[in-house]
From TrEMBL:
Coiled coil: none annotated. PANTHER family: FAMILY REGULATORY PROTEIN, PUTATIVE (AFU_ORTHOLOGUE AFUA_3G14730)-RELATED, HXXXD-TYPE ACYL-TRANSFERASE FAMILY PROTEIN. Keywords: Transferase. This is Acetyltransferase. The lineage of its organism: Eukaryota, Viridiplantae, Streptophyta, Embryophyta, Tracheophyta. It comes from Panicum miliaceum. GO terms for molecular function: acyltransferase activity, transferring groups other than amino-acyl groups. It holds the Pfam family Transferase.
Length: 333
């Protein structure tokens, strides 16, 4: 994940019932409280080199140095821009939205931004994906939001969210040793490439349309004699397969596959707690298939192909097998 992009998301709100300056102060105070429990978010990465007996560097390990370095809040005012300009109906995502998130092209830092629009508030953030997976990131953001709400609630209001589990997970069940990467300089892993000039569009699927897609897949699988596949179709499978076939039709590569990352916490046996802070994902992909065959076989076949690669459970690997399977992989999010 060291060469992956930052997680960059944004939340758009109507204007608050108080002055913007008070909102910034309120979010700043609640973020400070959230970082008490999620203190790694306010830290920095530290690289340690390991040397052999001759003094030559044989590898590096990366850890989080949590010494109160802090996270950053940026406050900006965008004059003449309204909510309708940020989320226009049936149009490309405006390029100005990218400017609402900080740290464009940066690595290993954490920041938050609060642009104020003419008639609303956009809370954007940049979060190092090397720090944790998306599940842990959203747990942190939900904790921040809960603290912000509790500061406005009557005294004694209960908290619903549990604190993060910061202890490193090990397949052996014991303490986790730092992973040694076989590089003398980790800078060689980072490949900074300019973002492609693409049009972006937000797609919205109603519950009714997803149910119709699911029913269409069930009918096609039943007609093909796949009763088991038809009985286990999910909306996730139907939407994923729809996007897979649409992208394949647009790109028209000769060979295609569909890949995605799965949260592993609840699939491990025994499971990891939802509050585990770190990475617990599994890279999944369908078998490769010729593009013409994917489009010709229909929606139901693609749904079954996605479902076949989506595990319900996964047992914890032994420590030896886990270490044997570790490898370096470039990741672009």
């Amino acid at each position: 994940m060291l060469d992956g992009d930052y997680i960059k998301k944004g939340l758009l709100f109507a204007p608050p019932p108080f002055f913007p300056a008070h909102l910034v102060d309120h979010l700043h105070a609640s973020l400070a409280d959230a970082l008490v429990a999620y203190y790694p978010v306010a830290g920095r990465f530290s690289t340690n080199q390991k040397r052999d007996g001759k003094g030559s560097v044989i590898g590096c390990s990366v850890s989080i140095e949590s010494a109160g370095q802090g996270a950053e809040i940026l406050h900006a005012v965008v004059h003449g821009v309204a909510i309708a300009d940020v989320v226009p109906p049936d149009a490309d995502v405006p390029r100005m939205v990218h400017s609402f998130s900080p740290l464009d092209g940066a690595a290993n830092y954490d920041g938050h931004e609060l642009p104020l629009l003419a008639d609303g508030v956009f809370i954007g953030f940049a979060y190092s994906h090397a720090l944790s997976d998306s599940m842990a990131c959203w747990n942190f953001l939900n904790a921040w939001a809960e603290i912000a709400l509790l500061k406005l609630a009557p005294p004694g209001a209960p908290r619903a969210l549990k604190p993060p589990l910061l202890e490193r997970w090990s397949p052996d069940g014991g303490a986790t040793a730092p992973v040694l990467l076989p590089y003398a300089d980790l800078a060689v892993l980072v490949q900074r490439q300019p973002a492609p000039d693409l049009h972006e569009r937000m797609l919205h699927f109603s519950s009714e349309s997803l149910m119709a897609l699911k029913e269409r897949a069930r009918r096609e699988l039943l007609e093909a004699g796949d009763k088991d596949g038809a009985a286990t179709v999910t909306r996730f499978q139907t939407l994923t397969s729809l996007l897979w076939r649409c992208v394949t039709r647009a790109r028209w590569q000769q060979v295609t596959m569909c890949g995605f990352a799965s949260n592993n916490r609840h699939r491990l046996r025994p499971p990891l707690p939802t509050e585990y802070f770190g990475h617990s994902v599994y890279a999944l992909s369908t078998e490769t298939v010729d593009a013409p065959a994917l489009l010709a076989r229909g929606h139901g076949w693609a749904v079954a192909a996605v479902g076949a690669r989506w595990p319900r459970t996964r047992t914890r690997p032994s420590g030896r097998a886990w270490r044997r399977g570790k490898r370096s992989r470039r990741c672009h999010c």
